[in-house]
Design brief:
mainly beta, Immunoglobulin-like, 5 helices, about 35% strand, elongated, cytoskeleton, cilium biogenesis/degradation, C2_B9-type_dom
């Protein structure tokens, strides 16, 4: 069964309407034609005993509980069946057993409309990691005993009987109203193939013959589900209250809380950082005072053979994006993301100020915690005089427009040429950003 995917369907109506017809065909040799071995119609969680269960429950000594004693009486009145069902609570629940199912030559064609298919539910590890609600499931395994020593009458079975049990199909019903079938139902002449070491090849079909509901009944169920959803929504609103701020319609809200951690590999100590956030078209800030700021002078800490200037300076941005109907395309692409620019400076004991580097980053596009390192550079002069002035008196080359480290805000041409602009690589700036996204 591992070779086939799981198809998912929406359950409309009661589970008592669910029915699946299983036909098992046998072919001993390739020259021999397939003949119908057995056919059975199963309903949801219908108890159909396997030959091994019949051999076990037939002996009253093996029956300890009231349920097992009831099985002992039922077996006497049940007909022999090579196809059977294991469900929740069975004595031999197959769990994660693998079956040797193959597909009959010729591709299976999916004749279902695409709007009835849904994606698989989230994996268990992702469900716990993302704090998603737990989904309760019930499983039903349709199996077959392919042994060549099955007697014609159930009364001839004796315990212990092992048999050769193989899984034909697994059906799972989840509490979120979905049915998962692995492998999928067959259509027209499609068949699945399973090999038996003792009796050659078997082919089988899985046909969905569930009772179809009328459109009137379906509409009634939709109305009931809608009413239940509205009640749950009103209950949640009553619990949360009106203090929870909702985003405006057709808008995107980005909330970032982070800190400037530190810097390393810069020429001088006594570092501090000046920063500002540039907002593209259609982006707005709830508080413009938070868009720019300056850190304190860093303290230097030794980590091994490396000196790290530590800031631990908090930053916070609360932004919203709402596209307008009349977008000015001449100002660039509407998908431009907010950019955070940095200027790293140093101040020594003699109050000599120097520019140590420039850098920038785009704000994270996805929610979560992000550790970011910014590689910085600074402009240099054309002569040795600039270096001497930087060393003795301070005061170095600076950018008139800090956005020149990326694309200047005043740039309007098609081509940006920075040829001949002399720079020097400096150190790195480290940040940690926690990003939350809210969208309508």
């Amino acid at each position: 069964m591992k070779q086939f995917g799981t198809e998912t369907y929406v359950i409309i109506g009661h589970l008592r309407n669910f029915s699946i017809r299983v036909k098992l065909f046998h072919q001993q040799t390739k020259a021999e034609e397939q003949h119908l071995e057995e056919e059975y119609v199963f309903h949801w969680q219908e108890k159909v005993f396997s030959p091994r269960e019949k051999a076990f429950y037939r002996d009253q000594k093996n029956c300890k509980t009231e349920t097992q004693l009831l099985y002992n009486k039922e077996i006497k009145n049940t007909r022999f069946c090579q196809i059977f069902v294991h469900g929740n609570g069975s004595i031999s629940y197959p769990g994660k057993r693998r079956s040797k199912i193959q597909m009959k030559p010729g591709d299976l064609t999916n004749h279902l409309p695409p709007d009835e298919l849904l994606l698989e539910s989230a994996p268990e590890y992702l469900r716990h990691f993302s704090h998603l609600p737990t989904i309760i499931t019930q499983d039903m395994y349709i199996m077959a005993d392919l042994s060549d020593c099955i007697p014609g009458d159930a009364a001839e079975l004796s315990s212990p009987y092992v048999g050769n049990e193989e899984i034909l199909c697994k059906i799972t019903i989840s509490s979120d109203g979905l049915l998962h079938c692995k492998p999928d139902f067959t259509h027209e002449s499609d068949k699945y193939k399973i090999e038996s070491k003792q009796k050659g090849s078997y082919y089988y079909t899985l046909e969905n013959i569930s009772i179809q509901m009328s459109e009137m009944d379906k509409q009634k169920i939709r109305n009931i589900d809608k009413e239940i959803s509205l009640r749950k929504s009103s209950q949640l609103c009553a619990i949360v209250g009106k203090q929870f701020e909702m985003p405006t319609e057709q808008s995107f809200r980005l909330f970032i809380v982070g800190e400037i951690l530190g810097a390393t590999n810069f020429e001088n100590s006594g570092l501090y950082v000046q920063y500002f956030l540039e907002l593209p078209q259609n982006w707005k800030a709830y508080d413009h005072k938070l868009l720019c700021g300056s850190s304190q002078i860093a303290s230097v800490m030794n980590h091994g053979n490396k000196e790290i200037s530590t800031f631990s300076h908090p930053i916070e941005f609360d932004l919203t994006y709402k596209p307008e109907i009349n977008i000015d395309l001449t100002r660039g692409s509407t998908s431009v993301w907010p950019t955070l620019y940095f200027e790293i400076l140093s101040l020594d004991f003699w109050t000599r100020s120097r520019t140590e580097g420039y850098g920038f980053i785009e704000l994270p596009h996805i929610a979560g915690t992000h550790s970011v390192s910014v590689s910085c550079w600074r402009p240099v002069g054309d002569s040795v005089v600039e270096d001497l002035r930087r060393f003795f008196t301070g005061g170095t080359c600076q950018l008139e427009d800090p956005t020149f480290s990326k694309i200047p805000g005043s740039f309007e041409s098609n081509n940006l040429v920075k040829y001949g602009f002399r720079t020097r690589s400096t150190g790195k700036l480290f940040l940690r950003l926690n990003c939350a996204i809210q969208s309508w």
